[in-house]
Amino acid sequence: MQPSITAAYLARYRSVAASGGPAGLLPLTGAQRRFLISRRLDPQGRPDVVPLFFGYPRGAVDLPRLRRAATRLASRHPALRGGFATVRGTPVLRLGEPSVEVARVTVGPGDTAREALRRALLDWPADGPALRLLLAAGPDDDEELLALALDHAVCDEQSLGLATAELGAAYTADGAAVTAATAATETAEDGRLSGPGPAADGLAAYREAVELQLAAEAAAASPAAHAHWAARLGGLSGGPAPCGAAPRPTGMVVHRLPAVTGAARAALFPALLDAVSVAAHRAFRPDRALALGYPWGGRLPGAPPVLGCFLNTLVHPAAAGTAGDLGALGAAWWDDLDHADTPFDELVRAARSAGAPWTGALDAALTFEDLDRRPPLVLAGTAGRETHLAGRPLAAPLAVSASHGDDLLVRLAWDRDRCPDAAAEAAFEALLSTLRHHLGAA
Questions:
Q1: What SS3 state is found at 54?
Q2: How buried is 275 (Cβ within 10 angstroms: 0-12 exposed, 13-18 middle, 19+ buried)?
Q3: Is 440 helix (H, G, I), strand (E, B) or coil?
Q4: Residue 372 gets which letter from DSSP?
Q5: Would you say residue 47 has pLDDT above 70?
Q6: How far is CA 233 from CA 208, 217, 243, 282, 415, in A?
Q7: SS3 call for 26
Q8: pTM above threshold 0.85
């Protein structure tokens, strides 16, 4: 068997780092490498962006204070103090100064804050900061809408919780005015921090977390894992056509179900996998297995809680048909989780070794978030009211997001160029029906 992709990458990175190349280079996790490859395949080089949206009473958010708090957050986390670069053909994170964008977005006549923020996020600068905080309100709005957006290559579910908690704490600690001690360490232009303390501690913790992650990825690219994924994904086809040059219009439908409790809670994720599989086949009606991607993972035991991308994208082969047997689905999913550390690029290699013409493009995507793990964004005692925006670019023609807290919020978004609205809405009904069937049985 060929050397693992992660082992080959680490050998190249160490060669670059040891040969007198630029200082301040850090290796990338497998997830980060995947997001950078996706960015290069995009005709406009757009990154995959993870935004959260919060509503606050008008005038409640102090923008300069928010800028200082965001810069403090960035100064603590190397993922927000660097930029992605390629050195001698090797992708790396190059450390730099903390850089964030905190700005008010203008809402023109006849426009809405939601539309203004959506357009601003579509216009993500290719070389801009990984963290952007954008505030918007229409002239007659009682509420201002704040977008907290991160490049996906620097964040995952746990990172979102760290970001909201630390940003809120920094905003509160800043107080109504910058103290003289703080002013001495910040520039008036952008609030950049000096001083080695938090940055040095953050760098050591981040390096440790990344090295642990890469060691796990290299170990997971075993012959047994290769055989498992070759058998699971060998029936995938070439996947959807690549994206066009301009962002395509997308639609979204939303439904709230009761919170899932008791024995059904353990069956929730495999139930979602099958429900999304049914929906994708209803939307596109193909006679082939679809590639349904879902992020999975997190920090390894003992890894420092740092902001960064430490998840993997696993792939579920969604077979055509109606709702499957939940017990068999759960057993197959648990088998997949036994090999969950295998990086995505190794999954593609395994599928192709089994004869699949699959390129790695996803037909559908599923994300699941446990809201108990992410605190709300509280700014000076005011908790933002979380909301969701339609019309954002999608990582797949069909994307389902499920958030579990006081209830189960299910959102389905689709590419309107590939799926008519009526077909997507019928697919959503099939998804909800399948989900209710499985959770009722569980």
A1: strand
A2: buried
A3: helix
A4: G
A5: yes
A6: 33, 19, 23, 21, 24
A7: strand
A8: yes
Q: For residues 239 and 361, what is the distance between their CA atoms, to the nearest angstrom?
A: 6
3-state DSSP of 222-290: CHHHHHHHHHHHCCECCCCCCCCCCCCCEEEEEEEEECCCCHHHHCHHHHHHHHHHHHHHHHHCCCCEE
The alpha helices in 354-403, defined as continuous H runs, are: none
At residue 125, the 3 state secondary structure works out as coil
Phi first, then psi, for residue 106 (nearest 5°) are -70, 135
Residue with tokens 């648990």: 334
Sheet order of strands, 25-26 included: 25-26, 90-95, 82-87
* Residues 272/257, Cβ–Cβ less than 8 Å: no
Strand order in the sheet with 290-297: 250-258, 407-415, 398-404, 364-370, 290-297, 311-318
106-135 pLDDT, tens digit each: 999 999 999 999 999 988 887 889 999 999
Pair of tokens at residue 405: 């807290």
- 177: how many CB neighbours lie within 10 A of its CB? 11
> What pLDDT digit, counting tens, does each position of 265-287 carry?
989 999 999 999 999 999 988 88
Which amino acid is present at 292?
A: L
Check: CB of residue 50 under 8 Å from CB of residue 160.
yes
Residues forming beta bridges with residue 313, ordered by sequence position: 295
How many other CB atoms sit within 10 Å of the CB of residue 418?
18
